[in-house]
Amino acid sequence: MAYVNPAGEFSRDQRYITTRITADGRDGYPVEAGRYRLVVSRACPWANRSIIVRRLLGLEDALSMGIAGPTHDERSWTFDLDPGGKDPVLGIERLQEAFLARFPDYDKGITVPAIVDVPTGQVVTNDFAQITIDLSLEWKQFHREGAPDLYPEALREQIDKVNRLVFADVNNGVYRAGFAGTQEAYQKAYDRLFARLDQLSELLSGQRYLVGDTITEADVRLFTTLARFDPVYHGHFKCNRQKLSEMPVLWAYARDLFQTPGFGDTTDFVHIKQHYYEVHRDINPTGIVPAGPDLSNWLTEHGRESLGGRPFGDGTPPPPPRPEETVPAGHGAI
């Protein structure tokens, strides 16, 4: 399975299933507790966002979660972590089965996160950017008491702007560098990535979070890329001007979030490394997974409290993750 574009610049296929699960059910899928299953892989940064948001908002009772293994083949993600290799709720071995159940001729990417309608076994959506916004806005009736407002109305325009820039140059920028097929395309992506990281460092040197004084959707989206930077992107994707741990402001910002309930305790570094180094064989033909880096530095003091800010605003931290959703021992820094 090839990821590098030999012609030059990597272009992400962004043809997602845009059906939405809404409070009014206007797309045919109303918000209902227990009806849907969020399928994720802890390896994937896009899926990791939905894991964090679901946890921060306290949606565990309303929206169950299936966890696929860290690797996949050309067909799709598989449930090899579950007994018998089948998701215990959906009864399927491959996420592909839920996509084909709704679209028998589906020819686009089988991606996570995806939300599946349990009664029919059909995928509803894999539109990762909209999924987390809708968890905040459409699923409000099922939020826990003390859930933070991750997408406050007064800040949405600003959050959307930050998200667009971060997606283009950072979230997707690391892939544009890693999957570039020519020196010119790689250099262009590399320059854009680090120029944006420098701008973000400057912004975050004077404020604790990206937008406003609380954690928002924007912080969730940046965090999942930063968490993968040193274990994967620095070496595997050749984003090697500096490690994250050598960029003082962003490193402190990332540690601040990592040490916040819902972030570090949903981050599985073993799955992250297994995914990138084993799946991208056109970049890493041997499939050897690096032993490093040392992760204990994620737990060091960050000093970001001095900038003020209230992580959860008027809300409260989420409770610890449920036993069945806890990152396995030895897979994280916590």
UniProtKB/TrEMBL annotation:
The active site is at residues 44, 175. It comes from the Bacteria. The record marks 233, 276 as: Lowers pKa of active site Cys. Residues 299-334 are annotated as: Disordered. One of its GO terms (cellular component) is cytoplasm. Glutathione binds at residue 77. GO terms for molecular function: glutathione transferase activity. Residues 149-279 form the GST C-terminal domain. CDD domains: GST_C_Omega_like. SUPFAM superfamilies: GST C-terminal domain-like, Thioredoxin-like. It holds the Pfam family GST_C_2. InterPro entries: Glutathione-S-Trfase_C-like, Glutathione-S-Trfase_C_sf, Glutathione_S-Trfase, Glutathione_S-Trfase_N, GST_Omega-like_C, GST_Omega/GSH, Thioredoxin-like_sf. This is GST C-terminal domain-containing protein. It comes from Actinoplanes friuliensis DSM 7358.
